[in-house]
């Protein structure tokens, strides 16, 4: 009889691996085995992807708000405009990744038109300039519903738009990437580029929020109290 106490077996520290993670591991190991890239190159790319964020995109929009000529460039040649604010689409390997070789377009909001982006197929996203996509952007819940009921979904994000504003949903895919250029909010007259950059959050650049003078990228979101708080 075994003296192993099954009731005292320690549970694993991580949840069970998902099917997608199994596929990623299998594909990565096969690519390394076939010589498409090395394990070192994969590590460099992974570390780079984890540290980039939406600040370059926010900087681009802030600069466009202040410089009409740059705004014209951003709306006609977004890749060139993004390079002017320091985004190198070939980083960090020198040849980029296949998903980053695409047509990139910046969508300008107007008083009559509001844009929001989605990827109905999976989670296509302009990572070199916006960083990694948020978890909710990749969920079937968002992808399926935003194209059918954009206003109710935006309302769930706290964005209530006037009925006379058209909501246009742009669908990213393997060949096209988008980001939104929101309108400059009132109350920011005389602000510097750095000040404007701070209020242009990731959600504004996706189109599920609007920039506001009192809301910055460093805002601390209020949390709800626990329903059953622990009483010490």
From TrEMBL:
SUPFAM superfamilies: Nitrile hydratase alpha chain. The keyword Hydrolase applies. It holds the Pfam family NHase_alpha. Its EC number is 3.5.5.8. Residues 19-209 form the Nitrile hydratase alpha/Thiocyanate hydrolase gamma domain. It is an enzyme of class 3 (hydrolase). This is Thiocyanate hydrolase subunit gamma. One of its GO terms (molecular function) is thiocyanate hydrolase activity. Keywords: Hydrolase, Metal-binding. Belongs to the nitrile hydratase subunit alpha family.
């Amino acid at each position: 009889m075994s003296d192993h106490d099954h009731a005292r077996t320690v549970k694993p520290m991580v949840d069970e691996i998902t099917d997608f993670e199994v596929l990623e591991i299998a594909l990565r190991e096969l690519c390394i085995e076939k010589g498409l890239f090395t394990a070192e190159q994969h590590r460099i790319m992974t570390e780079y992807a984890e540290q980039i964020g939406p600040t370059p995109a926010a900087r681009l929009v802030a600069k466009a708000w202040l410089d009409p000529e740059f705004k014209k460039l951003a709306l006609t040649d977004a890749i060139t405009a993004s390079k002017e604010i320091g985004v190198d689409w070939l980083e960090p390997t020198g040849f980029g990744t296949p998903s980053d070789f695409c047509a990139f377009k910046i969508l300008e909001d107007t008083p009559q038109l509001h844009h929001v982006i989605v990827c109905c197929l999976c989670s296509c996203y302009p990572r070199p300039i916006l960083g990694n996509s948020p978890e909710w952007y990749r969920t079937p819940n968002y992808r399926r519903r935003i194209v059918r009921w954009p206003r109710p979904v935006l309302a769930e994000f706290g964005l209530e738009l006037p009925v006379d504003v058209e909501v246009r949903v742009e669908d990213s895919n393997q060949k096209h990437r988008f980001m939104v250029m929101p309108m400059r909010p009132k109350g920011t007259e005389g602000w510097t580029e750095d000040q404007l950059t701070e209020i242009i959050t990731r959600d504004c650049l996706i189109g599920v929020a609007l920039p506001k003078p009192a809301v910055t990228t460093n805002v601390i979101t209020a949390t709800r109290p626990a329903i059953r708080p622990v009483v010490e």
